[in-house]
């Protein structure tokens, strides 16, 4: 059964979903009218706690069961994103090399854009080859804030 909760964060509201004990979706949303606690399961409450700790700089990672739906290639890319250290970035080309597909930078970009579990699967840490910020499903402003947060708290 799918449970969905909306949580308030310093970056705006987040929609997070759980199915059978796994986080399957995390999206930043604009409509704050939907925010409610009515479907918060123990896992969604733990996810909220960990997200808030991450955003306030008291935690640098997450320990939550994730189950993103996607192709095998997408899942391989998303797994590689988890290996990017907190406070660091990698280019699409570097991710392609990490997964053994050095000519697949564009495909990596497409997979990155399909990531259904933003923040917990850190696609915000992927930038263009020139180091510039590129697309982010929640918008470049949130991507920039997440990267700044990691640089700020990473030195602690």
Word description of this protein:
With 156 residues, this protein is an alpha+beta fold. It has 2 domains: 2-55; 72-154, Winged helix-like DNA-binding domain superfamily/Winged helix DNA-binding domain (Arc Repressor Mutant, subunit A), CATH 1.10.10.10. 35% of the residues lie in helices and 15% in strands. The protein contains 5 helices and 5 strands, in the order E-E-E-H-H-E-H-H-E-H. Strands 1-2-3 form a 3-stranded antiparallel β-sheet, with helices on one face. The chain has a two-stranded parallel sheet with strand order 4-5. Helix 2 crosses helix 4 (105-113) and helix 3 crosses helix 4. The protein is globular and about 45 Å long. Residues 72-150 form the Methylated-DNA-[protein]-cysteine S-methyltransferase DNA binding domain.
What is the number of helical segments per DSSP (H or I, 4+ residues)? Answer: 5
Question: What's the story with the biggest beta sheet?
Answer: 3 strands, antiparallel
Mean pLDDT: 92
Which second-level CATH architecture of the largest domain applies? Orthogonal Bundle
Oligomerization status of the protein chains: single chain
Supply Rg: 15 Å
Reading the helices and strands in chain order gives EEEHHEHHEH
Beta strand count: 5
CATH class of the largest domain: Mainly Alpha
How many individual domains? 2
Organism: Lacrimispora celerecrescens
Domain Methylguanine DNA methyltransferase ribonuclease-like: 4-67
Keywords: Cytoplasm, DNA damage, DNA repair, Methyltransferase, Transferase
Subcellular location: Cytoplasm
